Amino acid sequence: MLKFGDIIFAISQALKSFSRRGFITFLSISTITAALVVFGIFGVISTNLRYAMGRLEKKVGVEVYLPIELDETQTEVLKSKIEAFPEVEKVIYISREKAYSKFKREYGDNLLKQLDENPFPASFQLRLKSSFLVHSEISELTRKLEQLEGVSEIASESEIAARISRIAGTFRLLEIGWGVLLFIAATVIILNTIKFTIAARKDTIMIMELVGATRHFVQRPFIYEGMLKGFISGIFAALIIYGLQKGIRIILPQLVSLSDLGLGLIVLLGIVFGGIGSKLAVRKFL
């Protein structure tokens, strides 16, 4: 059973190792901190891309423009046909007058004053079901709409959505890839620093073993040392990312920052990587 006194002893030995090998400790913490900061930046970028995708998906739809000569009965028949498509959740009719008023409200009437008549066609705004907010599905819907009689033109934001989705996917892959590289780098760094610490304390370890210290008792200070380095690196990385986010938000107020949970996960990653690296080191060198 693990005793409280054993834990205090292990932590005190880990802290003493920090002061004895200050330069190596500084180097390892700095390297892991830099790696965690880059990982956090990928996280911020991925978070903002996912947020942009979420907002865009709510706006993504299809607008079907109608020819001016289409009468009311033909319009209702066309609307019924479109509502029958499985991809369509809702069809909203926008009259020529409403389109004119909307443009005037958003852009003013300076341009419209030069025109003798309303240049805007009537249209249907299509709201799609969430399961069909995919570029390939919207493209297929567009193809079917083009075959309907009474459709003049079709506009869609699906290409923009697809492009953002591809970029977000790329950054998710980069985030995963960097996470793997970070794990390897942090493990190697911690493993080597613990190796130096073990070599420097070889005589002390031998004496502890001679007086009956268990294997776990001997290993524990080194494992805690690695975890402490990871914890300190994670704290520094979280503070740096927090400061960067605050600075960027002055220029880009719409930036979506990592939550406190996200910053906490960066600290936790540091502890986990430090613990794994030190555990591998003591298994190999003790």
Order of strands, main sheet, comes to 2-3-1-4
What string, H for helix and E for strand, traces the elements in order? HHEHEHEHEHHHH
**Low-confidence parts:** none
Question: What share of the residues does DSSP label as strand, in percent?
Answer: 5-15%
- Calculate Rg over CA atoms: 31 Å
Shape by Cα distribution: elongated
Relative helix content: over 70%
Structural description of this entry:
The structure is a single chain. With 286 residues, this protein is α+β, with helices and mostly antiparallel strands. The chain has helices at 4-20, 22-59, 72-83, 96-107, 135-146, 158-200, 202-210, 215-251, 260-285; strands at 61-65, 88-94, 123-128, 153-156. Strands 2-3-1-4 form a 4-stranded antiparallel beta sheet. The protein is elongated, with a radius of gyration of 31 Å. It starts with a helix and ends with a helix.
Structure summary:
Helix content is 72%, strand content 8%.
Helices and strands in order, then pairings?
Elements: H1 4-20, H2 22-59, E1 61-65, H3 72-83, E2 88-94, H4 96-107, E3 123-128, H5 135-146, E4 153-156, H6 158-200, H7 202-210, H8 215-251, H9 260-285
Antiparallel strand pairs: 1-3, 1-4, 2-3
Helix pairs in contact: 1-8, 2-6, 2-8, 2-9, 6-8, 6-9, 8-9
